[in-house]
């Protein structure tokens, strides 16, 4: 792994990434730790994986808190931030990375519950720990960010709509966050090679990823996209609070 953020640039900071036991979340939190941050690894059901990553980051000399939490359960979320408060007393970076809705056997409204309601719930629970100069990053996809103007694959549409609803709900908080000196950035990326979503989409719609790769010219992999997410937590907040990663020529802006 190359050093994504300058060494020492996050010394003394505390960063939490939701869904960080694997994939984009795990790489993002690794980049934060490499830059000096103490970190909170959040997972839903991959405890051994989360612990393995935690030990790797502790070897860098970081303090690491591992918290299992179901983000759709307010009590579970409240307990997670209670642990963060007890361990660190504050939070400087919150990355809202966990999302879903392609899983089988979930309730009809699961995508909306996780991708909208839970995101808002996590932000509200975290806010008392976020101070002046802290940052919130919401991770989404072009397929969701542009869903109101550009159709997506039918298999992904309910998830895309729920993630856009989550983005819209979170954007409502921008004025209040700004007043407290808290920066908010949406990071939107194209399909990412090697993610759970890409795998599930490919299963439902074989050839979907190859088709998108051909159309876009290049798709980011997990570690490349995670580097952009990590960067968004330290770069100045864009004027429109949006950081678009990868090709957007096939998407129509509003």
What are the salient characteristics of this protein?
254 residues; alpha/beta; 7-stranded parallel β-sheet; 10 helices; 43% helix; globular
- Which stretches are low in confidence, meaning pLDDT under 50 for 5 or more residues running? none
Gap between N and C termini, in Å? 37 Å
Strand content: 15-25%
Strand element count: 7
User: How confident overall, as mean pLDDT?
Assistant: 92
Strand order of the largest sheet: 3-2-1-4-5-6-7
How is this structure best described in words?
The structure is a single chain. By secondary structure, the chain is α/β, with parallel strands linked by helices. It has 10 helices and 7 strands. It has helices at residues 23-34, 47-58, 74-88, 110-126, 142-145, 157-171, 174-179, 196-204, 208-216, 222-232, and strands spanning 14-17, 38-43, 64-68, 91-96, 130-141, 183-189, 242-245. Helix 2 links the parallel strand 2 and strand 3 (64-68). The longest helix has 17 residues, at 110-126. The protein is globular and about 45 Å long.
Spell out the blueprint of helices and strands.
Layout: E1 14-17, H1 23-34, E2 38-43, H2 47-58, E3 64-68, H3 74-88, E4 91-96, H4 110-126, E5 130-141, H5 142-145, H6 157-171, H7 174-179, E6 183-189, H8 196-204, H9 208-216, H10 222-232, E7 242-245
Parallel strand pairs: 1-2, 1-4, 2-3, 4-5, 5-6, 6-7
């Amino acid at each position: 792994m190359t050093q994504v953020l300058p060494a020492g640039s996050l010394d003394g900071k505390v960063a939490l990434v939701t869904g960080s036991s694997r994939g984009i979340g795990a790489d993002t939190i690794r980049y934060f730790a490499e830059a000096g941050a103490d970190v909170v690894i959040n997972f839903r059901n991959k405890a051994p994986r989360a612990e393995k990553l935690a030990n790797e980051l502790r070897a860098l000399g970081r303090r690491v808190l591992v918290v299992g939490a179901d983000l759709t359960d307010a009590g579970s979320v409240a307990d997670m931030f209670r642990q963060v408060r007890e361990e660190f007393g504050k939070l400087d970076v919150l990355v809202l990375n966990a999302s879903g809705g392609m899983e089988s056997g979930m309730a009809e409204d699961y995508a909306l519950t996780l991708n909208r309601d839970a995101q808002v719930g996590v932000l509200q629970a975290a806010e008392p720990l976020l101070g002046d100069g802290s940052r919130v990053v919401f991770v989404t996809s072009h397929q969701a960010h542009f869903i109101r103007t550009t159709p997506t694959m039918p298999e992904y549409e309910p998830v895309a709509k729920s993630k856009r609803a989550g983005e819209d709900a979170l954007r409502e908080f921008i004025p209040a966050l700004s007043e407290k000196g808290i920066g908010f950035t949406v990071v939107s990326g194209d399909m990412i090679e090697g993610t759970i979503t890409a795998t599930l989409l490919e299963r439902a719609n074989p050839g979907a990823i190859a088709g998108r790769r051909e159309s876009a010219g290049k798709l980011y992999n997990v570690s490349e996209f995670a580097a952009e997410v990590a960067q968004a937590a330290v770069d100045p907040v864009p004027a429109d609070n949006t950081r678009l990663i990868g090709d957007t020529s096939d998407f129509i802006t509003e």
